[in-house]
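tmp note - F-box domain-containing protein
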Amino acid sequence: MPPPLSYPALKCVLEFLDPARRIHIAARSPSLQRIEKPIPLVFDSHHVCYADVILNSTLIQFGPCDQLQFCSKGEIHKSYKPGSLSVTKALTRMLENYFGERAVIRVNKAYFDHKMEYIHTTTGFTYTVNEIDSRCPNFAHVLPFINPDSFPLKKLATSVNEPEHLNYPAIRFANELKMRFIQDCDPLQVIAIDKLCNKSVFFDFKKEELVDVMALIRYWIDNGRELESTFIFPFQRGKGALVGLFDAEFGEFKNTDISNNRYSIPIRGSKSIHVTVDKYTGDTDFKSTATLKIVSSL
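out:
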């Protein structure tokens, strides 16, 4: 019989083992858990959605009779039965058992749904992430679970239900930002938008009244903007109607020698706004977009 693996050897094996398989194996061995927990857990994608957790391509869910299941590539591996629990308590226990008390959890992309706002912040784990997609109405509910070393994020997509949420540093300084605005969110002030320090921002909203794009451009004409950023605003109206709207406001700055949908608007300082009106090509009911790119005029 071959000798058992030494701790250094076991550490190497566990660190590079598929994370879901590693968690499933360790969950059945208390002695292995003591060895496994301090070893960094690294995976590409992580979903926390309703009562399920997805690690890369493995779904961890509660199946029939509250039996916890690991589902991957058509195979189902059953684990312990926690008993009858509410959805929130079941999800909390799952996160505590599998991710709590870990020294390092590194995730490339993390996805959180609204259930995260009900998870207690004392569950004992934080993620170090590059990208986050959050469906929580308030991103503040997600922040306690994110290692501060993750900021600024490379990409952030988040729901927003209050204009004040734009003041969160995690939102303001993400490199790429997509904001999904709740239907009844109050209109945004141009000053709040100007404070965003992101490299690119996409506004996903259901009503155009949420952001007065023309007022934002006029604000930059009068006050300038130091940072070079790109802002993308979707519209329900068609491309032709949107071009007509920009023609009425900023027709004198239209680049007619290039195309009929581009504008170069000088603003205070050494910057200008390059505006491009295009047909929307996404999978929602938007019809057109206005892309505002702040560039140096020098």
